[in-house]
Structure formats: structure tokens, C-alpha cells
Write a structure and sequence with these properties.
Layout: E1 4-6, E2 11-18, E3 26-34, E4 40-44, E5 49-51, E6 56-58, E7 62-65, E8 73-80, E9 90-93, E10 95-99, E11 102-107, E12 120-124, E13 134-139, E14 151-156, E15 171-173, E16 188-190, E17 193-195
Length: 196
């Protein structure tokens, strides 16, 4: 999935393939994975545990890992892409393994790229959509609007996208023919525009 785009609230399953490419059996093989920052609802599978304080998934040490292809072990964990991540945010993940004969950690490699020992990268694709915003008007005097009537405007703003709107500013032009415009608390009136 390197370079793939994922949307907010997408469930992900990370699979770590652990194999011995050497010529001797490895013992006390320990695999850990620092979960990409921001992922939610992390669940370790295959006997693993998730330490929320360290944001770390770990599995019980493998007593031994042979060099045959059939000795390969797959360890997994699941997580969900949060809705708060901005469009284009990168999720970089790389597991590491150690064993009794090699205390220095070996980094995992993304098998879909030519690079060696590179992390698996995902990109968040989200958007904010306020296209269905509505502005309704009610004549408080009843009936059709006539000179001297009081009109009440109600703005409805809804985000139909899958991204979170941040620092959203809303402006509503005021018809120049209206008089005695009363703005809600916290709303400014300048240049014929109501701004929230």
C-alpha cells in the first residue's frame, strides 16, 4: 500500500512478515511496531498487545525462527484512520525486530518499493464540503414580505465531506435594501457582509 491514499475513518490492517534470511536459526526474536501517530482504535492481533502510553504494538518473543520459507511468521494489528487528519497527511509505519544474536534492531521494509528498509507510507485523502449550505428567510409578520416587515434569516451550514473543517469563516452578503440589520452575538458587520 506504499503511496496509496486512504480516507478518514478507514479501517487498516498492518501485516508484518517476519522471516529469517540468514543461515542459522534465530532465537528470542522480538518484534515491535510504533503505531503511526494519530491512528485510532488500535487492536493488536496474533497474540500481540498495544501499549497506548507508548503507542507501541509488541508481540511475545518467538523462541526460534528457522531459515525455511515455511518458518515465516506474520504478525498483524488493526487501526482506524482518524477523521481529524488533514488532506495529504502522511502515515509512515515501520516495524523492528531483534534477536539474541543481534541486539541492534532490524527495520522492516516495504516490499512494494525498490528502496531498502524503507517505511510503508499511506497518504490521507480528505475534503471539506459546504456546498449544501442553506439560507432560509422567515417573515416574522406573517404572509409575504412587505415594506416594514421584520425578516429573520437562518443559515444552515453542514459539512458533507469526509474531512474536518478547521478555522472555518462564513460570510453572508447583506441585501443593500434591508434596514436595521441586527447581527447575532459574535458576528461582525462590515462592508455589507455578515461574518462569523
Amino acid at each position: 500500500l506504499n503511496g496509496s491514499q486512504v480516507k478518514p475513518k478507514t479501517p487498516l490492517t498492518y501485516a508484518i512478515r517476519v522471516r529469517n534470511a540468514g543461515n542459522a536459526v534465530a532465537s528470542a526474536v522480538l518484534v515491535t511496531d510504533a503505531v503511526p501517530f494519530g491512528l485510532e482504535n488500535v487492536v493488536a492481533l496474533d497474540g500481540g498487545t498495544f501499549d497506548a502510553g507508548k503507542n507501541l504494538v509488541s508481540w511475545p518473543a518467538l523462541a526460534s525462527l528457522g531459515i525455511a520459507a515455511t518458518d515465516e511468521v506474520t504478525l498483524r494489528f488493526q487501526a482506524v484512520v482518524p477523521s481529524t487528519l488533514d488532506d495529504g497527511a502522511a502515515l509512515s509505519n515501520q516495524a523492528q525486530a531483534t534477536h539474541s544474536g543481534l541486539p541492534q534492531a532490524v527495520q522492516s521494509d516495504d516490499p512494494t518499493t525498490a528502496a531498502v528498509n524503507d517505511p510503508t507510507l499511506l497518504s490521507v485523502a480528505s475534503k471539506v464540503d459546504f456546498s449544501k449550505a442553506g439560507l432560509a428567510v422567515l417573515d416574522l409578520n406573517g404572509g409575504d414580505a412587505r415594506p416594514g416587515d421584520t425578516l429573520q434569516y437562518t443559515l444552515t451550514l453542514k459539512n458533507d465531506g469526509d474531512g474536518v473543517g478547521k478555522a472555518v469563516q462564513v460570510g453572508v452578503p447583506i441585501d443593500a435594501r434591508l434596514e436595521t440589520v441586527v447581527a447575532p452575538a459574535g458576528v461582525t458587520v462590515q462592508g455589507g457582509v455578515l461574518t462569523w
